[in-house]
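Please review this one.

:::
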Amino acid sequence: MFWILFGIFLVACVGAGMTGGLFPPGQWYRDLDKPWFTPPDWVFPLTWTVLYICMATAGARIALLEDNAVAMGLWAVQIAFNGLWTPVFFGLKNIRLGMAVVLVLWATVFAAMVAMWQIDVVSGLLFVPYLVWVSIAAALNAGVWRLNPSVARNPPPAPS
């Protein structure tokens, strides 16, 4: 049963991750000034692969336990906001709205981690690297906003 659940949670993660392919950074992003701590491009797919495996494992473990409703609900909310950030930031090219989305994502990842931790410590621990990465993402989003205030105030038109 664990492996079936793991597969279901992994499909959810891959679905969220596919927004990266649907809304690639493109020239608009390459032209923005970025903070000094921006990781090289190759780090992102590698990191997300590991994180999605951890997230799916945590979800599958929690799904098998009793009293998991809050943790499962929070897992669902965080994966929705995970999938939303890329279309907002790269698709709409909206740095400020992207910041709002990543802050909600951070809060839901934190809440999910705490809820899971209370039921299964291993599952809670599996969300720690994810929370660290979303913290880095939030700092990157904030840094791009700070370094590109005119673009943040006036996003270019989204493709129709």
